[in-house]
Amino acid sequence: MLVFFSVVLTIYSLANIYLFFKGYNAFPLLKNNRLLYSIAFFLLSVIFIAAKILESRHSSVLSDALNIVGGFWLAFMLYGFFLFLISDILLLTLKIPGIINTENILIFRRWSFFTVVVISALLITGGFINALIPVIKEYNITINKPAGDIKTLRIAAVSDIHLGSVIRKRSIRKLSGMLKEMNPDLILLLGDIVDGEIGPVLRGDLLQYFTFPDCTDGLYAITGNHEFIGGAGRTIPYIESKGIKVLKDEMVVLDGGIQLIGRTDRDSRRFYDKERLSLGELMKQADTAKPVILLDHQPFKLEETAKYGVDLQLSGHTHNGQMWPLNYVTSKIYELSYGYLKKGNSQFIVSSGYGLWGPRVRSGSRSEVLLINITFSDAGREAK
Fold first, then answer.
1. CB-based burial of residue 61 (10 Å sphere; 0-12 exposed, 13-18 middle, 19+ buried)?
2. In DSSP terms, which residues pair with 140 in a beta bridge?
3. CA–CA distance, 318 with 204 (Å, rounded to integer)
4. Do the Cβ atoms of 361 and 354 come closer than 8 Å?
């Protein structure tokens, strides 16, 4: 954890220093008021970190506001850094043949600054609007195993709600309405129900606004890494107090002998030095002649899932990168960072999630709720 935070803080600091000098070198006025500019930039750059520290000690409307502002600054850091880097490459390219010299370099820097700010603002604004419009992503799949008298199962699955300072009661009410319209047989929450610190959630008792339709097979949840970041000892009991059954390395059997296995998130070891049960141990309880559905927040080691005869794994965590071009990064980290994959006889679906972390911006993916229509049959049919 120390190494992880050291690396993150180093990258964060270097990116801010880079942005600081982009403004500083573009406008002589800022050089003439160096102290004032330095203080203002420093305060802006530490807002997000300050918000997280304040939130952990005393959640308030102020910490909520700082989280929102700091999140948008994170988005600008991402796009500002990439766009200024492109600008510097262009400047170097134009300097070599003498198209730009010392006399007009300041003009280039000013226009570059304004262009970067405008493009970044457009990307962030578009991503903000996009984040407010969740969609239903539908999959139709077949599991070639019998489930007694149950021939079909309609699942609504939601990952990465991230309730907290940014995602609040309006978002959870919207989610509740979407679930009601979907009319599922079973509702599954795939981890990261809360954003981290439980303070902002408890302050507004945000899960009281989460309502869901009566389902034939009920509602189940699993933990994500953020349930452990904020303190699982407080977070999980709060979630369960709202009638949500959290599966912690547990299996439940639904109608038709459908087996639902929920894994504790792998980060329980990182935060609590507690190993979760291996998939092999969990599968000892299961009858692989009947359907097995696995819930695992982080989509790692897909080959292990296929090895043990799981029919369907549902995951989240990746946000599909959330902001372009980070979706290309997550696609390199995970074998499946978003969408559907079939591996042997096992099928995998990874959701981009309903909520967000950090900036309320989605420019590389959509906020979504999964609707999975399962047909149980001995006659195979490809997923659509």
1. exposed
2. 373
3. 27
4. no
Mean pLDDT of the region 364-375: 96
Name the DSSP class of 207.
G
- Give the contacts of 43 (CB within 8 A, at least 6 positions apart): none
Distance (Å, whole) CA 87 – CA 81 = 10
| pTM, to two decimals | 0.91
User: CATH 3.60.21.10: which residues of the chain?
Assistant: 135-376
Phi, psi for 367 (deg, rounded to 5): -75, 135
- Of the pLDDT bands very low, low, confident and very high (cuts 50, 70, 90), residue 383 is very low
Q: Cα dist. 366→121, 270, 353, 362 in Å? A: 19, 29, 8, 7
Report d(CA 224, CA 194) in Å as an integer.
9
Write phi, then psi, for 362 (nearest 5 degrees).
-130, 105
Interval 69-128: pLDDT, tens: 999 999 999 999 999 999 999 999 988 888 888 778 888 999 999 999 999 999 999 999
Query: Are residues 374 and 312 in contact, defined by beta-carbon separation less than 8 angstroms?
Result: yes
Helix axes 61-95, 34-57, angle to 10 degrees: 140
16-25, 90-99, 348-357, range with the lowest pLDDT: 90-99
Instruction: Provide the CATH number for the domain formed by 135-376 in this structure.
Output: 3.60.21.10
Q: For residue range 262-304, what is the model confidence (pLDDT) as tens digits?
A: 999 999 888 777 889 999 999 999 999 999 999 999 999 999 9
**Around 203, how many Cα atoms within 13 Å sit in the side-chain half-sphere?**
18
Residue 325, preceding peptide bond in cis (omega within 30° of 0): yes
Where does residue 297 fall: left (phi above 0), alpha (psi -120 to 50 degrees), or beta otherwise? alpha
The pLDDT value given to residue 1:
61
| Residues 19/12, Cβ–Cβ less than 8 Å | no
Rounded Cα gap, residues 355 and 169, in angstroms: 12
